[in-house]
Prior knowledge:
Layout: H1 2-33, E1 38-47, E2 50-61, E3 66-73, E4 81-90, E5 98-100, E6 116-118, E7 122-123, E8 130-140, E9 145-152
Antiparallel strand pairs: 1-2, 2-3, 3-6, 3-7, 4-5, 4-8, 8-9
Amino acid sequence: MKTLGILLSTAGLAGAGVFALSAAPAAAATAANCSGAKSIASAPMLRDHRPPSWGTVRLVRDSCYQYWAEISMASPVVANAKANAFLVQYGGNNSGRVLSCDSSGGNGAVIEGQRTCRTPKVRATSGSITFAAIGREYHNYGGGYREISENSTKRTR
């Protein structure tokens, strides 16, 4: 009887694995259908609001109306520096929400040796919701990180 129980429980786990594996391609297929990511607004990263540009912050949208912010630095970030992008939502139930590259679903702030990061994607099909992207660069001169540059895109959809 003990052997029969082990056999049935193993078969149940195997069945659950088949179910889990069959659901994964459907999610991947949905993500693959959201193509055509394009920058819909951008702004240069300037220190003291003066050239040269040290990078770019962009607001991006794909064909499924998912929005996110990206920051791309002109060269890899040096030691004691970091950069982050922020997605700001205007309108809808989450008006005022701000997500960064460090938010769940983002890929983490730009740190030493890296050049880019992106925020989590937010799906918004309502025409009353707009977004803006903000980029910030920080440096730690010994007393903690201090913002040294910031710029933002226009609000758009």
